[in-house]
Write a structure and sequence with these properties.
alpha+beta, Alpha-Beta Plaits, 7 helices
C-alpha cells in the first residue's frame, strides 16, 4: 500500500512538472517537428504554472520525506518488507532521476532558446532609406520559448535584419529591408506559428 502511494506521488510530480512547462515545450517541439501551427496550443496553461510548480515541489518534497524519514520502532521490529531489496521503481535512485527530470522541466522556459537555430543572416543593405522598423502586438506569447519562436519565424523571412519579441509586453520589434520583403510577409510568417499579430505600429 505504501509503495503504491509512493508511486502515485512520483507519478503526480512528473505529470505536474511536465504540465507546468508544456506551454513552453510545445513551441520547441513544433519547431523540431516542422508543425509551427501548434506552437501556442498549450498557452492556456500559463496562468496555472505557479500552482503546478508549487504542487510539483510539494509532491516531490513529500516523496523524499517518505524515503528519508527515520523508521518508527514498530516498523523496525516488523522488517518483513525490508528483507527484500526494493525494486528500482521504489528506490531512492529512481526518485533522484524523477527529481532531476522535474527540475529540468520546471526550468525549461529559461533555457529553451538554446533549441532554436541561429538564423540571423548577414544582410547587405544597398540603401539605408530602405530599412524600416515595425512594432507588432502579438497575442499568445507566455514565456521565453514563445519569444524565441516568434523571433525565429520573423528572421526566417528574406530581408529581415533583426527581430526581437518580448512575451512580457506581448510585442515584437522587427527591422527589415523594404526592398526585399514587406510588412505583410513578416506578419504572415509570424501568424503561421499560431501566435497572432493583433496590431502593427511603425
Amino acid at each position: 500500500m505504501k509503495n503504491n502511494s509512493n508511486k502515485a506521488l512520483i507519478g503526480s510530480g512528473l505529470i505536474t512538472a511536465i504540465a507546468a512547462s508544456l506551454c513552453c515545450i510545445t513551441p520547441v517541439l513544433a519547431l523540431i517537428a516542422g508543425t509551427s501551427g501548434i506552437a501556442s496550443s498549450f498557452s492556456w496553461l500559463e496562468p496555472f504554472r505557479p500552482y503546478l510548480i508549487a504542487f510539483t515541489v510539494l509532491v516531490i518534497g513529500f516523496a523524499w520525506y517518505q524515503k528519508l524519514k527515520p523508521k518508527k520502532e514498530d516498523e523496525i521490529q516488523c522488517a518483513c518488507e525490508d528483507d527484500e531489496k526494493p525494486s528500482f521503481w521504489q528506490s531512492r535512485k529512481f526518485l533522484g532521476i524523477v527529481t532531476v527530470f522535474a527540475v529540468l522541466m520546471l526550468a525549461f522556459p529559461y533555457y529553451s532558446s538554446a533549441f532554436y537555430p541561429d538564423n540571423k543572416k548577414e544582410v547587405i543593405v544597398v540603401n539605408a532609406a530602405d530599412i524600416q522598423t515595425i512594432h507588432l502586438d502579438i497575442e499568445g506569447m507566455t514565456c521565453e520559448a514563445c519569444d524565441s519562436h516568434v523571433s525565429h519565424a520573423a528572421q526566417k523571412v528574406e530581408g529581415v535584419i533583426e527581430a526581437k519579441a518580448d512575451y512580457v509586453t506581448g510585442t515584437a520589434e522587427v527591422k527589415y529591408d523594404k526592398s526585399k520583403t514587406s510588412e505583410e510577409e513578416i506578419i504572415k510568417s509570424i501568424n503561421k506559428t499560431s501566435y497572432k499579430v493583433k496590431d502593427v505600429k511603425d
